[in-house]
Every structure is written in C-alpha cells, then in structure tokens.
Amino acid sequence: MGSTSAFNRRDLVKRAAALGIVAVPAMGVLSACAGGGSDSDNKVEKGKKSAKNPLAVNESAGLDVVIFDGGFGDKYAKDAQSEYLKAFPKADGKVKLSSTQKIQSTLQPRFNGGNPPDLVDNSGAEQMDFGTLVAKDQLTDLSTLLDAPSIDDPNKKVRDTLRPGVVEMGQFGGKETWILYYAYTVYGVWYSKGNLKKLDAEYPETWDEMLALCAKAKKKGVAGWTYPGKYPYYLPFSLYPFIAKIGGAEVLRKIDNLEPNAWKDPAVKAAFDAYYELYKKGYVLKGSPGLDHLQSQKAWAEGKALFIPNGSWVENESAKQIARNPQFDLAVGAPSSLSDSDKMPYGTIWASGGEPYIVPRKARNAEGGMELLRIMLSKKSAQNFIRQVSSLTSLNGGTEGLKLPPGLASAQVALEKAGQNIVNPRLQDWYVALQKERIGVGALGEMMAGRLTPDEAIKKIQKYADDTRDDSSVKKYKR
Questions:
Q1: Where is the signal peptide (predicted)?
Q2: Residue 377 dihedral angles phi and psi, to the nearest 5°
C-alpha cells in the first residue's frame, strides 16, 4: 500500500483518480456504456428453474468472479466455489475466480467495455464508487436472490436469514437492493487486554479514564493510540459512533443526508476536540501520519500503541503479529463516554454489513453470480468464513458450535451489550470520494497530524459536504 513517506499532492491526485474523483473521461465512458446496448447482449441462456435451482442457473455456463484480496483473503470464496461446482458439475473448468487489491483499476476498463465479471467483491482502497455505479445503472437488483429460498431452509427466503439492516444497507433510496454485504463488521477501538493488564488497567469507559491511561502508558514509553495516517478514513470507525454517543444517532443521520450545518453540531465539535487532545498531549504514536493500515496495525500489534480504530477484520489481518504474544487477548471497545450528558449509553457502537458484493448489470451469468452468493449465505459457508477469517457474516446466527477467537468473541459481547444502540453511518457507502479523500485525507488526517485545528477541520468538512450536496452530477440519498 505504499511507503511510510508523508502524503503529498501527487498521491492525492493518483488516489483521487483511482476513486473516480478526477477520472472524468473514464466516468464519461462508463456513463455512455450504461445507456448503450441491450441487457441481453452476451448473456448466457437461463437454465431450468427447479427446487434445487431456484434462480434458474445455466448449469453448464461459465462463471467469472473477482474477489478483493484484503484482510479476509479469498479462500472462503474458493471454498464456496467448490460447493457451486458440486451443484453444477457441468460448469467444471469454466468457473474463474481471481483476486486483486486493485478493484477499481482492474475492473473499470471491463465495466466500460461492457464485459464485467459475474460477481465482484467491491472492497478496499480502490473500491468502485457505489453511488456512481447505481446512478449509472451498472448493477443488478439482487431482489431475485433475496426472495429465493435459502440453502438451509427452503421455507425461508434468503432475506429472512440476514441480520437486521443488511438488506437496507444495499438500497439507495428505493426498494431495489444493489449490494449484498457478506461480512458483518464491528467497528470500534481495538486493543489488547494483555497489554492493558501490564498497566494494571481495563478498557476506559470514560474519556477522562482514557486520557489518564494514555498518560500512564506514555510514561512507560508506549503510545496511547495509532491510526493509518495514509488512510485516515479509518478514524471514523471509532469517531462516528463517538459523535452519535455524545449527540445522538440523529447527528449522524443529518450528516448522511448532507443537511446544512450538520457538521457544526456541538457533538461533532466535542468529539473532534477530544481526539485532537490525544495529538496535543502526545498520546499518538509518532510517525502515525505516514503509516498505512498494515504498518499501523503492525505497530499496534507489537505493543507500541494501546488502541487503534479499526474493524473486526483486524483479527485476521494482524494474526501473525498477534500470535507472537500469547497474552495479547484481542478485544474491541465501544467509544468511551465523554460526559454524563451524552445522549446514548456506554456500549453504543458501529456495526454493519461489510465486504460488499455486487452483480454487474451486464454480467454474462448474473444468475450464477447470485447463486454463488446464495451458497455463501448457507450455514456451512458462513461457518467456514468465520473459522478462516475471524469475522461474523451477514447470516443471522451461524455461530452455533463454533469456538470463537478472542476478538470475534469480544465483538459478539459488544453487540449484545449495545442491544438497540447500534449505529450505521451511510456516508462511506453513498459518497465514497467525500468520505475517503475529502473528509478522511483532507480534514481528519490533517487534524490528527496537527496541521488543522478541530474548528478548521469542521469548517473544511462542512464545505466539502455542501459542495457534494450542491453538485448536480452526484446522486443524493436520504435515510
């Protein structure tokens, strides 16, 4: 993901192009492609619909799948592919599954050319912008899959086997569902119980306790926090639920809806001030602004910092470093309480679907792509995923009989403690460029590096949000 050198303008332009911010010509081709040709062009013929084949998959047709090669790897998908071939042996030798970290640069030419894969795990730093894909009519509505019988219980639709909120996450203001989030991610402040025990401490449930613990750690030569400064859009994984805890979930709803002055809410200022204090008091690991996600996680896993904002994939992504410390005992904490006037209780956390899968509208074998997803949402495949990558899936339940690793067990406990106090910001789904490059790199990263004050960061972010709201070329969504 790059070196540890400081972020510069050339990096911004390159990454903005990768995210489609400055790639106007490419987006123009995508737009033209969306309107041209017939949906039936190059499509394989449907198969015969039956109880065993409810999506009418062509049993001998090829299948082209592209997986993001990130923290979850691709073995779980390859295992599901094996189950697909058991169901459709005539497709043997015709199923292609490839993986890459460069989703956008690898697949945009294929989307532009009208020959996209049949199923895509659209994730990672080069994730294609969902808002653009939906607006340009590039995706297949997955309602057919959701209304199909589930693998484990034919009397239950796939949609009825999913965790609450997963279907809604894939919708963009209508009844159509464009995205199926396969993983179920718990975001928050990740830490080692073992490293806290060395300081005779437990996870700080109040911000005063957080600052006191960071001060204690600093005296021992350990930083309180680190984060991936090259990808500072990781900061919201703990910052956004912190804002909601302080001011209520309504604050995040206004932010998602691009409402005027939403970022000027007192809860945002209070949360920004608190995080900025970590920088001002020297509680952030030196050099963090120059680290990518893997480098910051490595430093944290090696005990150079106590806390890191992250998602539940971190257990798998940092497994090798964590394994070197048998006493590590990974856990996730909800945002600490700022004061007694917080609107939501301690335990409020961000949890939502992750690892977004899409079936392109011009896929040759859309039915096959959806069938592979249906297989992945079986209990067998879900448990295989959980065992391999230490993450929950969107299948509601599915953990029966499994011994969960420490981080995942902690995430389960956090979800139980949160109860109904689970927030799910949509900014990162609806406005990828705004969230990652503008809010993340352009403001939060600058603030945590000490180059912007909280007031300056808020002013900048509000302008970014206003510009996005006023940009007629950007489709808007509401919750």
A1: 1-34
A2: -95, 15
